[in-house]
Predict the structure.
Amino acid sequence: MLDTFLKSLETGSGFWNPLVLGLAIIIALLLIYIIRGFGKKDYKTGTEQTKAFLSGNPEYSKDEMHVKGKNLYWGFTQALKSVYNVLEKMHNGNTSDYVLWFVIIIGVLFIIIGVI
Amino acid sequence: MIYNIPFIAVVAMIFIGLFAVLFKRNLVKIVIGISIIESGVNLFLITLGYREGGVAPIFTSAPSEVVKNAPGSMVLPVPQALTLTSIVIGVAVLALMLSLIMHIYEHYGTLDVRKIRGPEE
Amino acid sequence: MNWFELITLHSPPLIVAVPLLAAFLTPLVSKINDTVRNLFVLIMLSITGLLVLILGYDVLTNGIRVYVFGGGAPLPSGMNIPVRIMFEIDSMTIFMVIITIILALISILYSWSFMKDKDGLDKYYTIILLLVTSIFGMELTGDLFNFFVFLEISCITSCALIAFYVNKKESLDAAFKYIVISSIGALFILFAIGLLYAQYNALNMATIANAIQFTFFDKIVLVLLITGLAMKSGLAPMHMWLPDAYSRSPASVTFILVGATLAGLYGSLRVIFTIYGNQLLNTGFTFYPGLIIGIIVTALGVLSIFIGVFMALKRSDFKKMIAYTAVAEIGYMFLAIGSYLIGLALSVPDNPQMLIAGTYALKGGLFHILNDALDIGLLFLVAGAVYYATKQTSLNSLGGLARNMKYTTIFFLIGLLAVSGMPPMNGFASKLLIYQSTYQISPILSIIAIICSIMLLAVFVKVFQSIFLGPEIPSLKNVKEVPKSMLAAMALVACIIIFIGLFPNIIIDNLVTPAAEALQNTTTYISTIVGGT
Amino acid sequence: MSQMSKIVRTQSNIIFPFIMIFGLYVIAHGHLTPGGGFQGGAVVASGCIMLLVAYSSAWVLEKIKVSRLSVFESLGALGFIGVAFFGLIFGGWFFNNFLVRNGILFNVVPETGSTLSNFNTAGVLPLMNFAVGVKVIAGLFVIVLVMGYASSLKEWKQ
C-alpha cells in the first residue's frame, strides 16, 4: 500500500517524485524561517521605520500606488507589436470570419491529406 | 449520369449555404445559409438510401413477391431515420438561433454581423 | 449478489438515463421549493457518480463492455453487422466519464450559491443536466450517428447556457457565434458520417473500423471529422468562439463547458485511434497516413499553444485570460497526441525508442486532459468568486483582494501553480511527461512547450499581482468572502489537484495507462464487438 | 397585437379541427405508416400556430398558460424515458420492447405481407410516439408563442 504512494513517476528518460520535492520545499521553508529569525524585532510601528521609502518623494494615495493589470508587461507587448497586430486581426469578433477560418482549415487539410 | 444529379445538387446546396454564411452580413441571412447547408446534408442522406425501383421500407405491407424474390429492393430505412432525426435537431437549432437574433436586435439595434461584437478587453 | 450484478450490467444506459430523467423532472420538482430542487439535482448526479464508479471498476477489471439497447446479443441472427444502437465502453471512455462527473458535481455544488438570486433557475438546472447527459452520451456511445445527435444536443444546450445572462449583450453575441460555428461543424460531421454509411453500410464505429480501406472518400471523411471535432474542442485557428463563450458565461457553466470541449477532444481521439486506427500505418502511400495526421495535429497544437499564451498575456479581463489559457492547454494535449502519431510512424522499420517515447507522450496527453479540466476549472471558479464578490472581472479596476478573500486567494494560488506546471502540482507531472517524450521526437517542440509554459506562469503572476496583491482599493473595502458552497466546491477541486500532484502514479497506473492502451489496441476494440459473435 | 380579419378567423376556425385530426392520426398510426410523433406533433402545433396568427398571440396567451405547456413538454419527455425504464424493469433491458408478444396492449406480431389495418401491433412504439407527440406539440407551440409574444411586445412599445 505504501509502495504505491511512494513510487516515483517514470517518464521514459527520467523520473519524478513529488515527495522528494515536497521534502525540499519543507526544508527551504525551515531555512527561510530561521533566516527570518535573524531580523531585528525592536522596530517601532507607526513611526518612520515602517513607512514606504520612495527616494524621498511623497507617497501617493492607495488607488494610484497599485500597479494595475494594463501596466504589466507593457514592454513585452510593445516589442512584439507586429505579432500582436496579426493576432488581434484574427480575433476580430466577426462570425463570418470565424467560419471562414474553419473552411480554410478544411481546404488546407483536403489538399495535404488528399495529395498523399 | 442521371443518378448523379442529386449529389451535384447536394454539393451545390452546401456551397450556396456556405456562401451565404461567409459573405452575407445580415444575421437572418446567415441563419438561412445554415438552413440551406442542413437541407443539402439531408438531401445527401436521403439520396444514399435510394434504390432504383425500390418500394417503401414497410416490411409488413410490401408486396409479397418483393419480400420473397428480391429482399434488397426496398429503399434503405436507416438514412430516412437519420434524416428525420437531423430535421428535428435542425428545428431546435433554428428556433434557438432565431430567438437569439431577436434578443441581439433588441440590444444592438442592428443585424449587421460586423457590428455585433463584444467589447475589446 | 444479484442487485449489484444487475446494476453493473445496466449501468451504461443508466449513466445517460438518470441525468436525462432528472432533467425533465426538475421543472416539476422546482414547483415545490428551490432548496428541494437543488438537493434533487445534486442527489441525482451523485447517483450517476455512483453508477460511474461501479461501471469504471467493472471495465477496468474485466475489459471492454458492450451494452445493446433493446437487449439480446449484439448481432441478431443472420446479420453480419451490428444493426442496433450500442454503447461501447473501454478504459478511455471510463477516464473521460470520470472527469465529466467530477466537473458536473462540482459545478452543481458551486452554482448553489453562485446562481442564487437569478431568474429562470429551473430551466438552468434542466439545461445543465441535459448538457451533462449529452457529454456522457458522446463518451459512451459506439454509434457514429448517436455521437452526432449527442454532439448537437451539447451544442444547443451549451449555447443556451452561454446566453444565460440574456440581458447582457456580449453574452448573446458569444452564444450566437458559438451556435453558428458549432452547428456548421456538426453539419459537416453529419456529412462525413453519411459518406461513411454510403461506403460501409454501417454506423457502428467498430464495424466501420474493421472495414475501412482509406480510399479517397475516407480521406474526405477524415478531414471533415477531425476538423469538426477539433473545432468543437477549440484547437487554433478555429478557437475564436472559445474565449468569447468561456468568458461571457456564468462561471459554473464555464466549468461544465470545459467538459464539453474535452468531449470534442475525445471524439477526435476516437476518430484517429479507433476508426482510422488500423490505417495509421497503411503502406499504400508515399508517407504513412499516421505521420501526416501527426504532423498536422502537432502543428495545430503548437499554434494553439502559441496563440493562447500570447493572447492571454495582453488581455486585461480575468475570465478572458483564463479562456485563452484553456486554448493553450488544449494545444498541449494535441501536441502530445501528434507526437505519439509521429513516434508511431517513425518507429516502424527498426526504431522502437520512438514508439516508447510516443507512448509516454500519449500518456502525458491523456493525463493532461484530467489536469487541464481541474486546473482551468478551478481558475474559472475563482474568477466566478471574484465576480460574485466585486461584480467585475477587469484587472484594471481590481486590487488588494487578498485582504478580504483569504481562501479564494489560496485556491487561486493553487490553480496558478497547477496550470503553469509548477512542480508540486498536478500540471507538472503531465507536462513533464510531454516535455521529455516530445524532446525525443523533436527538441524544438519541447522547447516551445517549456517556453510557453513559463509564459503561462507570467500570465497568472500578472493576474495575481493585479487582483489579489497590492494596497487596499477604497471602492473594494467592503468586499466579503464568498458563501460556503462556493468555497467548498473550490476546496474540493484544490484537494484533488494537490492529491494528484503528490501521487501522480496512482492516477497514471490506474486510469491513464489503461486508457492509453485502450486507444493503442484498436484490434482488441474491434474484435470485442465485431468478432465476438 | 391586432387580430386578423373576420374572414381569416372564420376560415381558421373551420379548418382547425381537420388539422388536429390529421395530426393526431399521424401520431396514432406512427408505427404503421410513415409518420410518427414528431411529424404528427408538428402538424398539430402548426394548426395551433395558425390560430395564433389569426387571433394574435395575446389572445392565445389569455387562453393558455406557457408554464402549463412547459409542464406538458416535461411530461412528454418523461413518458418517453419512462417507457425506456419500464423496458428495463419488465423486459430486463433498457428500451426493451416488453409489450410485444406478451403484453396486454399492442401485442400482436403481424404476418409478413399483411395489410396495415392492424392497430394493435408494435409493442411500446405507439406509446413512445404518443409521448414524443405530446412533447413536440407543447415544445413547438411554446417556442412560436413566446417568440410571437416578444415581437408583439416590441411593436406595442413603439
The longest strand of chain C covers residues 65-68. Chain C touches chain D at residues 10, 13-14, 17, 20-21, 23-25, 27-28, 67-72 (CB under 8 Å). Chain C is about 75% helix and 0% strand.
